[in-house]
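As described in the Methods, two query proteins were run sequentially through the folding procedure within a single session, without resetting any intermediate state between them. The first query and its resulting structure tokens are shown here.
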Amino acid sequence: MRVLIALDVTSQNTKILNETASRPWPPGTAFLLLHVLDPYPFAKAPISLKRAKEAAAIQLNTASQSLIEAGWKTETDVILGMPRRVVSQIAESWKADLVMLGSNEAGALMRLFLGSTARSVLRHAPCSVEIVRPSAQEMEAGKPRQMRILVATDGSEYSAAAIQSVANRPWPKGSTAKVISIPEPFMPLGEFPYLELKEIEDQNTAALKDAKRYAETGAEALSKAGLTAAAETPLPRDSDAREIVKLAELWQAQLVVLGSHGLRGFDRLTMGSISEHVALHAPCSVEVIRAPLDLTKNPKKLSKKGAKR
């Protein structure tokens, strides 16, 4: 597994790296610690830019020690450019499986800002993305601890890829998972003026039955992988994205995992997504799984791929 950690060289480095070092990873996992330095403020001071780049490189090398001491292959790099563009480009050229980056906690207004690094990476990275929000309680780097993992599924191949990704990783002993599937209520509009109440009830009953099947199938897969897993089918009282965020808070999840439906280009820029809303608003870390397109069409191939990681 190849994990790119995008770092802003600040005090937040330690929190993100402690979170990373506290988790067990598949054997052979490699890390790239990346800092993207915006050269624009230094346009008239090239010497200052050189010094800033050298200072960032030193800080990255220091920050990488926790992963190196834990026995992981780790490299560092400082690249000039705009972070919201360069992170995804490096993820593609380095062939990353996962990009991890810190959340923007500047407030609701900044979260809505379309140019934010987190939002841009979520939309454009060629691989899975995790927005890291370490728990408020300080943890000791390199010390694996039990985790509470909330997995959302809608029965799609993208959700199946998310469940497979969780199942393939060596979580700390005693970790628990909850797999949720929110049924899609049938709301008759003008196109269905002649539906009887019983027909509407049947549609909603079928949706609930499907959601239970999706959640139970996911929980069974995670149980077989060694996690203590349960299934839940919460009834929707708000949008799916807001419901997932609420459940993450109520259950005190440390990580939410869900699939991305892989929108590209203009569609992704204009439509947004459930995964994006959850990633930007959840109270904990959120991982959005983006399975390679050829693998989502072949679940067996996906399982074999995951087993090698």
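Immediately afterward, the second query was submitted; its sequence and tokens are:
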Amino acid sequence: MVAPAYQAGAGMVAPFVFLGPSHLTAIALTFATPAALSAIVRRRQTLDESIRLGLAFVIAPNWALWMYLLYAKRWLNIGNEIPLNLCDWATVATFVALVWPGQKSFEVAYFWALCGTLQALITPDCKYEFPDAQFTLFFVYHGSIIAAVLYLVFGRGMRPYLSSFPRVLGWTALYAAAAGAADWWLGTDYGFLRAKPADHVTFLDALAPWPWYLPELALAALFFMVVVYSPFFVRDRFALRAA
């Protein structure tokens, strides 16, 4: 469903265009930002803490502003006011990894950001184009999570390991159980466990109808985890051969 344009200040705000110039620019900035920050910190290691805390300061208030936007536009309801979207949990994991860098918080943030939040960035639930507040907050919120974990990889040298898989899968199962319990009790659709989104394109559109897409989604999550781990696996294999 395409949202109508509406009057905002002196001009009209257009409906969001999937893979339009604003969308592609937001995606590009998501990856350009950690690349630039990593280049800076490699030259001045003392800036690492300031960069990490700066990213954390972007993520946490932006989440609060996003919730306020939902309230201000009267979009807030039982289906989005509880922090039970995967991106909500990824926000917490990423914030912890930035403020108190540790392997366990990082690996959860890494896989959730690149296997989950990245999907939201590519197929966003966004109604209006830039410079509407929804567009700005949506892409800053989701983009900053991805940028943060990429900075921790390229700027700080953190990485996942094969031993990360059972821990991350355990946390993911806990998330699915929490979201599923809420969906069953409240009739909501956190985690898209009860239905596919009907108002915007998502990866789920390529899967079977409910409930058959749920096991497919689990397999897809594992596949994406393998994909985002593969660069480290390849590097480790080359290191072993060179040793």
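The chain has a mean pLDDT of 92. We note this only descriptively and draw no conclusion about the first query from it.
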